[in-house]
Each structure stands twice: as structure tokens, then as C-alpha cells.
């Protein structure tokens, strides 16, 4: 039976943040929308959404980006989940992850927030941490740079050379998570890549 999934890309609003590491979640959701020729429209839950399908006749996808800053994205996410009648196990949060090397993906359900304030706020607003996550590795900053500054910097030239592939892989991972389940997606994306 077809399900409805809420796919949320975490990030910050406005042009200042568009190309930053912290916004990789929104970039992935943009990729999912572009693959389907969809555009985002305003939603009363203080977010932008694009309604589409995984494939014709398949599961419905509600692609979403909150209009709020990352650290307070829980309200819009919970509002969208309520509006569409989607339980937390069908809310997929795509976000940047400092503790995973750049160009690496990890998927999980539940667990801690690892210091990620956006994930923390979503868990608080949903009343549970048991939702699927696609964690897109951005790596730790070099030297003594503050991680808070690192995540708000644009990707460097070396990273930009492979960024499109990382975004495509993350979008593929979301699709596989929805289509085949968490374990299959983990087996595909956690395996070492050549």
C-alpha cells in the first residue's frame, strides 16, 4: 500500500546560506524535486513544499524546506507532519553531519542528535527521536577553526568538484530508503566505495 513520506532538508533560509555546508540537506531536497520537475510553493506551516511521487502510482513524497533557521526547524516539520497526517517513522530528515567525512553518507533511525541543533529541535517538536535520517558527511574543520563557523562557510573548491555526486548519492539514498527500507539503504550506502 502506498505511503506518504515527508522528506525534510534542513538548512537556513536566504541567499547568504544557500551554498553553505549547513544547507546540504536543502540542496538534496532540491535535487529530489528537480528530478521530478517540481517546484516549491509556500505552505502555512512556515515552509516550502513540493508534492510528488517516488514513481507514478508509488509512494507520495512531500519534499520540504522550513522557512526558519536550522535550530528552530522543528515547528515547521511537526506542522507539516500533522497537516499531512504523517507519523515520525515516515519523516526523513536530511542533514549535514560533522562527524562523517565529506563525500560519505550514513543512514539511521533514532539515536542522539550528535550536537546537531536542527535534529535536536525536530526530535523535540515531533516528541520522538525515532525518525529516519540521511546524514550527509561534511567532515570536521581543518586546524582550529570553530565548527560553528565551518558549517556556515561555503564548500571549498576541492569539495565543489565532487559535490554534485554527493548530492546525487544522497538523493538516491533517500529514494532507496523510501523504496527498499533502512537496512537495504544502509547496506548500499555504508559499504566502502571505490
Automatic annotation (TrEMBL):
Biological process terms in GO annotation: protein quality control for misfolded or incompletely synthesized proteins; rescue of stalled ribosome
InterPro entries for this protein: Pept_tRNA_hydro, Pept_tRNA_hydro_CS, Pept_tRNA_hydro_sf
UniProt site positions, description: Discriminates between blocked and unblocked aminoacyl-tRNA: 12
Top EC class, one word: hydrolase
EC numbers for this chain: 3.1.1.29
Residues annotated to bind tRNA: 17, 69, 71, 117
One Pfam family matching this protein: Pept_tRNA_hydro
Keywords, ordered alphabetically: Cytoplasm, Hydrolase, RNA-binding, tRNA-binding
Site (Stabilizes the basic form of H active site to accept a proton): 96
Active site: 22
Keyword Ribosomal protein: no
Compartmental location: Cytoplasm
One example GO MF annotation: tRNA binding
Enzymatic reactions: an N-acyl-L-alpha-aminoacyl-tRNA + H2O = an N-acyl-L-amino acid + a tRNA + H(+)
KW Acyltransferase (keyword) present: no
One GO cellular component term noted in the UniProt record for this chain: cytoplasm
Entry-linked CDD domains: PTH (cd00462)
Functional description taken from the UniProt entry: Hydrolyzes ribosome-free peptidyl-tRNAs (with 1 or more amino acids incorporated), which drop off the ribosome during protein synthesis, or as a result of ribosome stalling.
Protein family per UniProt: Belongs to the PTH family.
Subunit structure: Monomer.
Protein known as: Peptidyl-tRNA hydrolase
Amino acid at each position: 500500500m502506498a505511503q506518504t513520506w515527508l522528506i525534510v532538508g534542513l538548512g537556513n533560509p536566504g541567499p547568504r546560506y544557500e551554498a553553505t555546508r549547513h544547507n546540504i540537506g536543502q540542496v538534496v531536497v532540491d535535487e529530489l524535486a528537480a528530478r521530478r520537475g517540481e517546484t516549491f510553493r509556500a505552505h502555512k506551516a512556515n515552509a516550502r513544499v513540493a508534492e510528488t511521487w517516488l514513481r507514478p502510482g508509488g509512494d507520495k513524497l512531500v519534499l520540504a524546506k522550513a522557512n526558519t533557521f536550522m535550530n528552530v526547524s522543528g515547528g515547521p516539520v511537526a506542522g507539516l507532519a500533522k497537516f499531512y497526517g504523517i507519523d515520525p517513522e515516515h519523516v526523513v530528515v536530511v542533514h549535514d553531519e560533522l562527524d562523517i567525512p565529506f563525500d560519505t553518507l550514513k543512514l539511521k533511525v533514532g539515536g542522539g542528535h550528535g550536537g546537531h541543533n536542527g535534529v535536536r529541535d525536530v526530535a523535540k517538536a515531533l516528541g520522538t527521536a525515532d525518525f529516519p535520517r540521511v546524514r550527509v558527511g561534511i567532515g570536521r574543520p581543518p586546524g582550529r577553526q570553530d565548527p560553528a563557523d565551518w558549517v556556515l562557510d561555503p564548500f571549498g573548491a576541492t569539495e565543489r568538484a565532487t559535490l554534485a555526486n554527493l548530492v546525487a548519492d544522497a538523493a538516491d539514498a533517500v529514494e532507496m530508503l523510501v523504496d527498499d527500507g533502512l537496512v537495504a539503504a544502509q547496506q548500499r550506502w555504508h559499504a566502502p566505495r571505490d
